[in-house]
Amino acid sequence: MPVCVSDCLPARLPACLPACLSVCLPACLSICLCDCLSACLPACLSICVTACLPACLPVCLSVYLSVCLPACLSICLPAGLSVCLFVCLSLFLSACLSVCPCACLSACLPACLPVCLSVYLSVCLSICLPAGLPVCLSVCLFVCLSLFLSACLSVCLCACLSVCLPVCLSAFLSFCLPVCLSACLFVCLSVFLPACLFVCLSVFLPVCLPAGGGSKGRSWKWKEMLRFPHISQCTDLAMNIERDYYSLCMKQPIGKKLFQLFCRSRPDLQNYMSFLDALDTFEEKSDIERREFGISIIQRFLMSQSGQCVPTGPRHEQSCSQSLELDPCGDVFRDCREELHQHLSGEPFVQYQESMFFDRFLQWKTLERKPISKQRFRQYRLLGKGGFGEVWACQVRATGMMYACKKLEKTHVKKRQGEAMALNEKQLLEGLDSRFVVSLAYAYETKHALCMVLTMMSGGDLRFHISNIGAPGLERDRVCFYAAEVCCGLIHLHQTSILYRDLKPENILLDDNGHIRISDLGLAVRLSEGSLVRGRVGTLGYMAPEVIGHEHYGMSADWWGLGCLIYEMTAGQPPFRARGDHPSASEMERKIQTQREEYSDKFSKEAKDLCTSLLTKDPKQRLGCRGSQWGEVQSHPFFQKINFRMLEAGLVNPPFKPDPRHVYCSDVQDIEEFSSVKGVTLNQTDNSFYSKFNTGSVPITWQNEMIETGCFRELNIFGPAGTRSPDLDWSQNPGSPKRSLMDRIFHRHTSDPATEDGKQKLLPSETYMKSGLLRTTL
To answer: Do the beta carbons of residue 151 and residue 135 sit within 8 Å?
Structure first.
């Protein structure tokens, strides 16, 4: 043991560590820790390594720990010591072993270790540690970080990922571990990994995080951040909010859920809610299942003899039965649904506005309208760079939801006169709600930048998938799927009179499930009904002939772009430029306006026909621009296997799902640093523009975030037996505001104008639970 440790461990490690290892641990465990069961001790090699360990230990370390180690321990070590190796010298951790000596790992570690952290440790540490550390030390650090960044630092991990290791290890490990082991870890981090650790955290970890939310990643103060104001503080909002049924109870997700809760609390409205639930389920059924399920809906809710029959149902029974028989895939219950909502928008909606459910909606809206600043987010790795700034991965502290923050440098925007473009993109995005277009969640400003917080798309863009993975181009099923989703995105834009004008592979992004979204609406424009626009806008290789020719054009330019996209996904190159060619701008213009594209054997008959129809030079004859508009695009034989109804509902599985362990973009080191602009002065006119940009949360996206991350479910608590909780009780005065440390030191009172900000202390959610109040959710 003394020879082995002194040969293997770095000289800077404390001298007591080898002594502790040989004294406190059995020889077999010391062997594993000192040299990772390698050639240093051949006695163990013949038993353990050949049977269990993979040849490339540093790379397959996660496999070794999760799969091979239990078998190894059962052969080489006493059963009771299996815990010790997993927690990395857990014999030193007397506190942990005294609490849970046998169940520590099986109960604590697998449950506490987040998926993103295990991916980070298996990918990042296997790359960085073996380069500068002995194998034995790599294992030591790997397991220590696995334990303490998941179990001991589970709270800190949610709060400060970017600074967790350098800051929190010094705070926690020195208390949780004996001095010798703490010193071991800190020497390793400070000597062997002076810079690599920051690169790992900022580059690898955010890519492995899921795009969605959940309880992981929340700040430990998340309930305080989302604490409801007392209802008496919502009176101004109650007076000014738009009292429209379709806005409050259908479009806004939280408003819809609370209205449904209200209706379910009323016996006379419960059948209406059951009917609406059945109609929503009907829309999710496959074409084969719709007829049978539709018949059951008619029998339950539209027949007068049924106990669940709604009052408006019987007069629609015959028409719905006929529609279901003729076309079960159509909108069978449309008229019935409209009349049902017309009824609910009357007296039930009036009564809802007088209920505690509407008051709770006002509380949510008050939280939604709170000012937004950069302190609301954690910032992670740089994702890319655009014309006006950079895009960074970020996370909402209160909910854990991951987003992409597009930062527009104020000086760059002003120098290039991009104010109108930036404001245009922001205003267009906040009015959209499509699963095929990136969503805007927040818009705010910092001292130097305008920030748009957008949907996190961690799967990379189509340019990367077409050009950097395997042979140029994509498989046919992927081409068809992506083209169908882009088609749906264009239709959603066109239905709101938005002309996109910049369709190209770089602007089509994949999420972590493999679905795509259209991004970057900086060049998009909203057209009034029947109007056209003129302007040379877009990327040259994807511009339509009428755009290049300075003609007036409408939505035809986007269908040309779809043809270029399908062609490039299939052929691996744009239609009018071969790979490796760099023609001049004039040559590209000539080819687009006069030359016909060529098709290789990669194109099926249907793909060739679709591209030819979309790349027609005359916009009046182009597919998508004729009489039936986008309907003829979706009905093309190329999309024969696509069920657009289910695709729009998000019920079609993508043919390709990005690997969360891979980074589908350029290395962060390849992204050039965004240079600053000198000589640009910001004035009052600029501040006026910034105030139009800085509008905070986008209602629908913010409310979806609350629901998807579980915050709505955990916070939407009412009193027992359907009564109001204290924060909803108009008869109770709100509590006094929480006094800060400085207030208490200088004896300031809440009535002091210098400290009174109008915000009242609110009753925390935990108080409701302790007093026996109920959690009421859908």
So the answer is: no
- Which one is predicted more confidently, 776 or 326? 326
Alpha helices in 64-122 (DSSP H): 69-76, 82-86, 94-99, 109-112, 115-120
Distance CA 96, CA 318 (A): 70
Closest of 473, 774, 487 to residue 629, by C-alpha: 487
Question: Is residue 360 classed exposed, middle or buried when 0-12, 13-18 and 19+ CB atoms within 10 A define those classes?
Answer: buried
Looking at the predicted structure, is the pLDDT value of residue 263 above 90? yes
Q: What is the mean pLDDT of the chain?
A: 74
Q: Which residue has the higher pLDDT, 673 or 542?
A: 542
Output the pLDDT for position 681. 77
In the chain the first and final C-alpha atoms are separated, in Å, by: 62
Amino acid at 4: C
| Beta-bridge mates of residue 621 | none
Query: Whole-angstrom Cα distance, residue 408 to residue 664?
Result: 23
Judged against a pLDDT cut of 80, whether residue 727 lies above it is answered with: yes
Q: Which of 496, 642, 616 lies closest to 559 in space, CA to CA?
A: 616
Examine the pLDDT at 421 and tell me if it is beyond 70.
Answer: yes
Of 561, 584, 587, nearest to 574 by C-alpha is 561
**Angstrom distances, CA of residue 390 to CA of 404, 406, 668, 673:** 10, 6, 12, 9
Helix (H) or strand (E) holding 657, with range, is: none
Stretch among 244-248, 260-264, 683-687 having the lowest mean pLDDT: 683-687
Rounded Cα distance, 344 and 346, in Å: 5
- Residue 502 among the catalytic residues: yes
Helix runs in 513-651, H state only:
545-548, 556-571, 585-594, 605-614, 630-634, 644-648
Give the pLDDT of residue 128.
38
The predicted pLDDT at position 141 comes to: 54
Q: What is the 3-state secondary structure (H, E, C) of 310-358?
A: CCCCHHHHHHHHHHHHHCCCCCCCHHHHHHHHHHHCCHHHHHHCCCHHH
Q: The whole model's pTM is what? A: 0.70
Token representation of residue 11: 């000289």
Q: Band of the pLDDT at 529, cuts 50, 70, 90?
A: confident
Cα 211 from Cα 361, distance rounded (Å): 27
SS3 499: strand
Encode 257-282: b = buried (16+ Cβ within 10 Å), e = exposed: bbbbbbbeeeeebebbbbbbebbeeb
Tokens 């970080």 — which residue? 145
406 annotated as ligand-binding = yes
Strand, coil or helix: 452: strand
Measured distance CA(339)–CA(335) in Å, rounded: 6
User: How many degrees, rounded to 5, is the angle at CA 312 between CA 307 and CA 315?
Assistant: 100
Judge whether 501 and 523 are in contact, CB under 8 Å.
yes
C-beta of residue 403 within 8 angstroms of C-beta of residue 396: yes
Exactly one of 502, 558, 727, 729 is catalytic; name it: 502
User: What's the whole-number mean pLDDT along residues 316-325?
Assistant: 93
Q: CA 625 to CA 622: how far, in whole Å?
A: 6
pLDDT, residue 579, reads 79
SS3 of residue 270 by DSSP: helix
Residue 736 confidence (pLDDT) above 70: no
SS3 labels along 373-429 = CHHHEEEEEEEEECCCEEEEEEEECCCCCEEEEEEEEHHHHHHCCCHHHHHHHHHHH
Q: Beta strands 402-409 and 377-385: pairing type?
A: unpaired
Which 3 state secondary structure label does DSSP give 767?
helix
pLDDT tens, position by position, 200-215: 333 333 333 444 545 6
Radius of gyration over every alpha carbon of the chain, rounded to an integer in angstroms: 31
Closest to 363 in 3D by CA, of 231, 222, 224, 226: 231
